[in-house]
Amino acid sequence: MNSNNAANDIQPGEQENKVAKRNAIVYATCQAFNGASTPVNLAVGGLAGSYLLGEDKSLATIPIASFTAGVAIGAIPAAVLTRNLGCKYGFMVGMCIGIVGMLLATYALLIGSFMLLCVATLINGVAAGFVQQYRFAAADRGTAEFVPKAISCVLIGGIAAAVIGPQLVIHTRDLLLPTQFAGAYLSGISLFVVSIMAMYFLDSSTPVEQNTSTSELTVRPLLQIIVQPRFLVALLCGTCSFALMTFIMTAAPLAMVGHRISVDDATLGIQWHVMAMFGPSFFTGNLIARYGKAPVVICGLCILVACGIVALMGIQLWHFWLSLVLLGLGWNFAFIGSTAMVVETYHPHEKSKAQGAHDFILFSVVALASLLAGWVLNHYGWETLNYIIFPVVIIAILALFWLSRLERVETA
Question: b/e string for 146-163 if b means 16 or more Cβ within 10 A?
Answer without folding.
Answer: bbbbbbbbbbbbbbbbbe
